[in-house]
Amino acid sequence: KKKIAVMTSGGDAPGMNPAVRAVVRAGIYYGCDVFAVYEGYEGLVKGGDLLKKVEWADVRSYLSLGGTHIGTARCKEFRERSGRLEAAYNMVINGIDALVVCGGDGSLTGADLFRSEWPSLIEELVSTGRLSSKQVAPYKHLTIVGLVGSIDNDMSCTDVTIGAFSALERITEMVDYIGATAASHSRAFVVEVMGRHCGWLALMAGLATGADFIFIPERPPSAQNWKQELKDVCSRHRAYGRRKTTVIVAEGAIDDELNPITSEEVKNVLVELGLDTRITILGHVQRGGTAVAFDRRLATMQGVEAVRAVLEMTPNTPSPMIGVLKNKIVKYPLVDAVKQTKAVATAIDNKEFDKAMGLRDTSFYD
Ligand code: ADP
């Protein structure tokens, strides 16, 4: 019987629970035993109670549960070979040689590294006498499948990541709340949202709420005159009779010379315009709460596809990441997707902003 483990890793995202549920139930449906790894890679490294077989009923009500119920953590040990050796040991003694990881690009990079090292880790476990050749014989290869859980929608080669639409919904709701009080007092609000190298949340929230101005890292404004431009746009909108001013700033906002654009700076510009201005940093409310229907569906379809991918993979197939392109669930080589994602950050650092936008490869930017 095939044994599959499922885990969540890195920053939590709404929809991770529905993804775990789908992997568990699709796994059981296809005749596998499914294990949950608790606390991200820490569960693999430490084993014991952090690695448990789960049944159909264990994931009951996961669809409407925010965060990730099986826990997530940053795990330093897994970054070292010695930590990954323990992880391999714990997997083999439980008879597991397939792992579905739901996380961001860091988690997926770690997973693929683990897979490529697997044969040598197994060899070391045998040569040091911790496991016998007979024990390891059925576990020559590790199968890895990635699901992208990230509120930022910051992975290339997929249109959308699990959790992004839930975070966007939350931001939109919060900006609407702020809008009501802003218009009452005729105030300006600078709303800071998450997204370090990725302005998707800021851009989409700006569109959804009709913000006056949006700052995102992939389309930085001119260092020379963004302040003047911001003033011109906001005063034009005020002249039309608008009683509020809303500016959305991505956490990673920069100008075209790569200087950070902070909420504080934006506020100062609006104050110079004579506007009573406040800053709201939305912070972790963006992550919390339950997943919207879109993310529940996405996580479910992708979780099922992840199990199918595990069952179809041969030792020579590159580890896939399950994504969605033009509304179709697709498999994409994980390493290539991670490489392209990292290239976005590099392109931004090199001031190649159009290239960065192209590398995102998501139809939302078309
Ligand atoms: P995310 O998955 O959201 O990008 P991180 O980058 O923090 O989050 O990664 C989560 C965990 O994945 C890390 O704590 C670490 O255990 C593991 N990890 C990340 N990058 C690597 C890597 N290059 N090699 C091995 N493990 C890694």
TrEMBL record:
<feature type="binding site">
    <location>
        <position position="187"/>
    </location>
    <ligand>
        <name>substrate</name>
    </ligand>
</feature>
<comment type="similarity">
    <text>Belongs to the phosphofructokinase type A (PFKA) family. ATP-dependent PFK group I subfamily. Eukaryotic two domain clade 'E' sub-subfamily.</text>
</comment>
<feature type="binding site">
    <location>
        <position position="11"/>
    </location>
    <ligand>
        <name>ATP</name>
    </ligand>
</feature>
<protein>
    <recommendedName>
        <fullName>ATP-dependent 6-phosphofructokinase</fullName>
    </recommendedName>
</protein>
<feature type="binding site">
    <location>
        <position position="105"/>
    </location>
    <ligand>
        <name>Mg(2+)</name>
    </ligand>
</feature>
<feature type="binding site" description="in other chain">
    <location>
        <position position="251"/>
    </location>
    <ligand>
        <name>substrate</name>
    </ligand>
</feature>
<feature type="region of interest" description="N-terminal catalytic PFK domain 1">
    <location>
        <begin position="1"/>
        <end position="366"/>
    </location>
</feature>
<feature type="active site" description="Proton acceptor">
    <location>
        <position position="152"/>
    </location>
</feature>
<comment type="similarity">
    <text>Belongs to the phosphofructokinase type A (PFKA) family. ATP-dependent PFK group I subfamily. Eukaryotic two domain clade "E" sub-subfamily.</text>
</comment>
<comment type="function">
    <text>Catalyzes the phosphorylation of D-fructose 6-phosphate to fructose 1,6-bisphosphate by ATP, the first committing step of glycolysis.</text>
</comment>
<feature type="binding site" description="in other chain">
    <location>
        <begin position="150"/>
        <end position="152"/>
    </location>
    <ligand>
        <name>substrate</name>
    </ligand>
</feature>
<feature type="binding site" description="in other chain">
    <location>
        <begin position="284"/>
        <end position="287"/>
    </location>
    <ligand>
        <name>substrate</name>
    </ligand>
</feature>
<feature type="binding site">
    <location>
        <begin position="104"/>
        <end position="107"/>
    </location>
    <ligand>
        <name>ATP</name>
    </ligand>
</feature>
<feature type="binding site">
    <location>
        <begin position="74"/>
        <end position="75"/>
    </location>
    <ligand>
        <name>ATP</name>
    </ligand>
</feature>
<feature type="domain" description="Phosphofructokinase">
    <location>
        <begin position="3"/>
        <end position="309"/>
    </location>
</feature>
<feature type="binding site">
    <location>
        <position position="278"/>
    </location>
    <ligand>
        <name>substrate</name>
    </ligand>
</feature>
<feature type="binding site" description="in other chain">
    <location>
        <begin position="194"/>
        <end position="196"/>
    </location>
    <ligand>
        <name>substrate</name>
    </ligand>
</feature>
<comment type="subunit">
    <text>Homotetramer.</text>
</comment>
